[in-house]
Design a protein that fits this description.
This protein has about 90 residues and is an alpha+beta fold. The protein has helices spanning about 5-10, 15-20, 40-65, 75-80; strands at about 1-5, 25-30, 30-35. The chain has 2 domains: about 1-40, 3-Layer(aba) Sandwich (YefM-like fold); about 40-80, no CATH class. A hairpin with a 2-residue loop joins strand 2 and strand 3.
Length: about 90
Amino acid sequence: METLSANDAKTKFGDMLMKVQRTPIQINKNGKPVAVVISMDEYQSTEALKLRLLQSRAAKAVEDINKDDLTDGEQFFNELESGQHD
């Protein structure tokens, strides 16, 4: 991934827009990463993937409810906090 300083991103904005069509670009400010610029196609693909994941999890929840395969609320939140549902 290419990296630009915030100042370079500002002064070379048009060039950055062209490059970002091929690969994401990390923007650093004071030497620290603060943003990543991606193409609209990449953004839409990412959003579609997130939606499919959410739909899959919702479908699984409906299946569990229909099978009466329910989890105790406290147990679920303990599992959630421990990262089991990530």
